[in-house]
Amino acid sequence: MKIAVYPGSFDPITLGHLNIIRRAAKIFDRLYVCVMVNSAKNPMFTLEERMNLIRKVVGRFGNVEVEWSDKLLVEYALSKNASVIVKGLRAVSDFEMEYQLALTNKKLEPSIDTVFLAADEKYSYLSSTVVKEMAKYNANLSKFVPREIINDILDKSGGKR
Ligand code: ADP
Fold first, then answer.
1. What's the confidence (pLDDT) of residue 157?
2. Between 3.40.50.150, 3.40.50.300, 3.40.50.620, 3.40.630.30, what CATH number should domain 3-122 receive?
């Protein structure tokens, strides 16, 4: 059984993240979406809220589980018997940092590989930061985040529905 971990801050989950989850869930037998505690310094959503938002939209995938971790990523992956870390690559600007992280994780734990999925071109500009900024100005979020969580984001950001 091929088990993979998809880590991130997911503050909040976007259509770009969901696109990676959908594709990774097809490739791997089980996918753990893991909200990493240290990766966001001043998150808008608490850990619990971020997990709940993800759970609202991944219910449709039978092989996806949502968790959080404050461990080293490779240690978390080992604890789940995962052999793969999944990352989405948006642009060349993502590459340098992600490549460095992948090599570091490989040094720490050679049994775990990082697999990069190229971001869908529709979402290659999209980040949680963009979503939070748009929400402040009451922008229409339907092109950025799953429909089910739009009101949660507007409520939190003080934006109007
Ligand atoms: P963000 O940069 O939006 O704060 P995260 O830290 O939550 O994102 O990112 C988790 C993972 O998802 C990373 O591998 C990141 O490259 C990937 N990712 C983020 N946004 C997108 C997107 N729009 N398309 C594809 N992958 C993405």
1. 87
2. 3.40.50.620
